[in-house]
Amino acid sequence: MALQQFAPIAALIILAVVLTFIISNISTIFGPSNNTSRKTAPYESGMQPIGVGMRRMPVKFYLIGVLFILFDIEVIFFLPWAVVFRDLGFYGLAVMGLFFFILTIGLIYEWKKGALEWE
Amino acid sequence: MIPPLWMFLTVAAALFSIGAFGVLARKNAVAVLMSVELMLNAVNINLVAFWRFGETAPSVIGQSFAAFVLVIAAAEAAVGLAIIIAIYRTRQSVVVDDVDMLKW
Amino acid sequence: MTFNELSWEALAFGAFTILTLGGALGVVFNRNLVRGAVWLVVSLFGVAGFFVLLSAPFLAAVQVLVYIGAIGILFTFAVMLTRSMTNLSERFNKQAWLSALAAVTLFLLILLAVIAPIFGEIAAPSSEVVATTEDLGVALVSGDKFVLPFEVASLLLTAAMIGAIVIAREED
Lengths: 119, 104, 172
Known about the structure:
heterotrimer; A: 4 helices; C: Four Helix Bundle (Hemerythrin (Met), subunit A)
């Protein structure tokens, strides 16, 4: 596998990094900056902020994240299987069916437990 | 022409050592898990490097081993972080030194 | 090796080394865990680059998709949920110097005792023919290769999913 094949991907990544850096920093580099403690406060003419700025988030975000990661992992197995799907025939379909069936059991369990609810 | 095998192995060894230092020295449990991920990645570099340099006929043993390591790393991260969140909820702390109830 | 002989592969190797090891040092030494998660993504990206260099582009894509896309997000969520980034006072425990000594010793030991004497001579891959993603797909489901680990992996994923959600859920 020649490295030259990946030149477009490298160009895309470099472009993305450089462009993100420019866009996110151009106003601080070229704009006037006159920071006082009052100007950087969240509410310029409001109440004094109390406590830490970061509040604890509901754990539901993490549950959705776990479900996402475990179904994202399947791409490791599904993608190589899918490129040779036609050659494998019924046997490949059965093997992948068993794989998918076991994962679906877990999903059904979560569904019944109410982990997918968002109240 | 890719660099020789020992360069890949050296980078993987350095990555593994940095991860081991993080596991041993960090206080925050989330940082410890991040360091474990670094160590798993070092192992993956080694597996793929040996596969690339060692095989004489096309085989997929190293690549599929690395893929299974990836799967197990993801499962480990999901369960490990869930345990850290549960500990945080009951003890209000993610410092590993605070969770010593099993220690006599 | 003069500069003219410096190939694209060598340049890419240097860049990926800097990304991987620099990101790893950022993870270990950063006080702010959100920044630590971003450094972790940088390091994992360097590892994906190594997979490209080693002719495993499928693993590189999976590394970006699964590690950077999913595990990076999961770590960021965990930092958010435990509010651990506000506890910036102490990074290391009491055994930090001892751990640093152990890590450096481990690295030197691997380098001098394993890598240099055993694998120092191997300069090039023994064959230019490498397996493709198609071969991986065939091997994953064929009965004499990896079909059993393949099915067990689904069982492991199911167990991890159920376990993670049962542990992390708040009982009402």
